[in-house]
Design a protein that fits this description.
4 strands, four-stranded antiparallel beta sheet, 135 residues, alpha+beta, 21% strand, 7 helices, Alpha-Beta Plaits
């Protein structure tokens, strides 16, 4: 039996710059998920470091923080049956070259470093990220 979950989805600065907010929302809603909260804002460096804390020791950490703070993002609380896994499928693989056609990244992204969307990778990450962005 499916479990109703909430997950955090974010249209990253490249997706906002390219005018893809509506397309991302369309794909989420088309699959039957509900957007419970949504906000447009620019992530400050402190919040970015907290959001990407699990990667703080990796060589690309600075690039992650720099990119996510480079422009406005749209953060969403998305709810539905098995939302974490379902949204990961809709988004596609992190590297657009590996993402399936029909997925957001497979259809719209061109670079692994600018891949349109972020989505929580587990129920625990979703809880932590939703707290960060929605209190």
């Amino acid at each position: 039996m499916p479990e109703v979950q909430q997950t955090c989805i974010m249209v990253k600065p490249d997706g906002v710059r390219r005018g893809l907010i509506g397309e991302v929302i369309r794909r989420i809603e088309h699959r039957g998920y509900r957007i419970r909260e949504m906000k447009l804002f620019t992530v400050d460096p402190e919040l970015a470091r907290e959001h990407y804390a699990e990667h703080s020791e990796k060589p690309f950490f600075g690039e992650l923080v720099s990119f996510i703070t480079s422009g406005p993002v749209v953060a969403m609380m998305v709810e539905g049956d098995d939302a974490v896994a379902g949204m990961r499928q809709i988004m596609g693989a992190t590297d657009p070259r590996d993402a399936a056609p029909g997925s957001i990244r497979g259809d719209l992204a061109t670079l692994i470093t600018e891949n349109i969307v972020h989505g929580s990778d587990s129920v625990e990450s979703a809880e932590r990220e939703l707290k960060l962005f929605f209190g």
